[in-house]
Amino acid sequence: MTVIAENLVWGVKRRTIVQDVSLRVAKGETLGLIGPNGSGKSSLLRLLSGLKTPQSGSVRIMDQDIARVSRRALARQVAFVQQNASTDTNVSVCDVVRLGRTPHRSALSGWTAADEDAVMTALQQVDMAKRRSQPWQTLSGGERQRVIIARALAQDPRVMFLDEPTNHLDIHHQIEILRMVRALDLTSVVALHDLNLAAMFCDKIIVLQSGQVVAFGTPAEVLTPRLLRDVFRVEAEITAGAHADHPHIRFVTA
Amino acid sequence: MTDADEKGGAALLLLLLPLVLVVLGFAIAVASAIGDYSIGLGTVFLAVTNGLGLTAADIPPIEQSVVWDLRLSRALVAALAGAGLALCGAILQALLRNALAEPFVLGVSAGASTGAVAVIVLGIGAGSLSLSMGAFAGAFAAFALVAILSNGATSGPNHTILAGVAASQLFNALTSYVVTTSGNAQQARDVMFWLLGSFGGVRWPDFHLLLIVVIIGLGVCLLMARSLDAFTFGDEDAAALGVPVGRIRLILFGITALMTATIVSMVGAIGFVGLVVPHAARYVVGPLHLRLLPACASVGAVFMVLADIASRVVAEQQTIPIGVVTALVGVPFFAIILYRAKPQT
User: Fold this and answer.
1) Beta-carbon separation of A82 and B236 below 8 A
2) Spatial separation of the C-alpha atoms in residues A100 and A90, rounded to whole Å
């Protein structure tokens, strides 16, 4: 198991946002995190990636308790892709991707061939190599998202956490980005809103409701009309997709 | 940025940095030559080598004394103050992700003025405390208040800026209260003049202290230059890139407060350098801090020495407060940059 979370609890003031969540992600697996607004998806992702510290419970990544690992060491194993990354600074595509090498470089070390390799490979993986000199401010939303993913890849991580990476993208780019993430030889956990995209691209799905896990399994096991009615309050028909494990959801008006 | 760009950038820096240093040396020489009593550049050179003990040239003792004891130390302090303020501005603009951040945004200048007023007007310390020590204590008191109000500077840029605004208001109010109730117009004018900044009265010991502080500051900031780059997309993103955000913020806020407090306690709150120079430098060398910070320090140094020269020559027999000059020169310069920089987004 690459990622093991046990009994995670986290909240703000007296409101508990993540309640006793445990989960396991196997090596190379793409885990989808779905749930209605405010169900704790983003918070859970931040707990798993060590950006937030749980009130109780623990996260183990690659057999290490992340609470005991330095932030720098953790960033060499784990990359986090935030939604809608933005900056006022006038940086180029390549500048941004180079930031991904931060955890691998000490304060005084120069730019090595390995760093350059990682950056170029990452740029090629997201098909932005030819536009590496372009200013960040001139990129479209989908291009920015690809650059941020390239930066995460330049970190050379074992596990990647993505917080709604397809937000605000058109359908072509949504599919393109998720296909790319799935094709990567990485363990990844992706928070998603679109249930059909989750069904198409995830090996396993976790459904969160009010900070608790209400279902866990393959898309076909999890995405049932009953669950969609109970958790998302929608009526839907589920049909088998091209592959038995990846069903298709058709929403119907009640 | 491609590999070639990176090398080009490094080459540009290697070319520009010596150029700026030569300009700085020349500016300091001119600053040592110009004044009510003008001295030739050749004599200035000899006076400097004499002072360093390299030569024993025969020049009038008065000229030797004016250059070495008065003007050179003043010019060097001006250079260091400019370098330090520009550096602090660049650091704070990065950490607070705010283009308007400058060295006094954390209430340091307001605290310094309160400390100075406490010493000048109230006579706290009964003569044993100098104005500079009072100002330094006040500056650090203000910084401590900001640090407490913003939970050790860990609760995000806007929170920290608001804490700085609150601290500035509090200390400015205290200063005004003391000045108005003390009822001594001359003392009030002294304080006002001091606040606008002046390099009059700085001597070699000031230079030595400031040199140590600025070198330490520059060293620490350069070591953290890569971490500063990681703040491009915000605090959380920096954390995701492996930067220990809380620790870095606290160290850098502390070092900027130390530099600013030292500078303010010596020469007053000289505005605008810390705001404008980082923008100008960023416009030329780009946003990456390993290049930006040395550029800021050197451009800030040159700018301040030139401003000091201007403050002494513009009005005859009078020295204009240096803060007035930095703003008068800085604003048009800033306007050009704003005008020429293409609007982003």
Assistant:
1) yes
2) 17
Rg (CA), chain B: 21
Task: Render pLDDT for A190-247 as a digit per residue (tens, 0 to 9).
Answer: 999 999 999 999 999 999 999 999 999 999 999 999 999 999 999 988 888 777 778 8
Question: Tens of pLDDT along A36-92?
Answer: 998 999 999 999 999 999 999 999 999 899 999 999 999 999 999 998 888 888 899
Closest CB to B1: pick one of A51, A74, A92.
A92
Q: Report residue B125's pLDDT band, with 50, 70 and 90 as the boundaries.
A: low
Quick check: is A239 in a domain?
no
What residues are paired with B160 via a beta bridge?
none
Q: In this predicted structure, what is the pLDDT of residue A3? A: 92
Range of the domain at B183: 77-340
CATH number at residue B213: 1.10.3470.10
- The number of C-alpha atoms within 13 Å of B337 and in the hemisphere containing its C-beta is 15
Best B226, B249, B289 member to test A by mutation, with max A CBs in 10 Å, is: B226
Beta strands (DSSP E) in B166-248 are none
Using CA atoms, how far residue B277 sits from A43, A203, A226, B268, B304, in Å, is: 40, 53, 63, 18, 10
- Do A6 and A66 lie in a common domain? yes
Q: Look up the ipTM and state it.
A: 0.88
Residue A236 lies in a domain: no
Instruction: Give how far the C-alpha of residue A136 lies from the chain's centroid of Cα atoms, to the nearest Å.
Output: 22
- Domain around A211: 1-77+157-218
Mutate to test the interface with B, among A46, A53, A88, A101 (most CBs of B within 10 A): A88
| B313 inside domain | yes
Q: Flag the least confident range among A140-149, B242-251, B333-342.
A: B333-342
| Count: domains in chain A | 2
Which of residues A129, A156, A183 is at a domain's end? A156
Written in H, E and C, the secondary structure of A154-191 is HCCCCEEEEECCCCCCCHHHHHHHHHHHHHCCCEEEEE
Are A7 and A54 in the same domain?
yes
pLDDT at B28 over 80: yes
Which of A80, A132, A137 is closest, CB to CB, to B344? A137
Tally the domains of chain B. Answer: 1
Determine the Cα–Cα distance for residues A87 and A52; give it in Å rounded to an integer.
Answer: 22
Contacts of B43 (CB under 8 A, 6+ apart): B33, B59, B63, B67
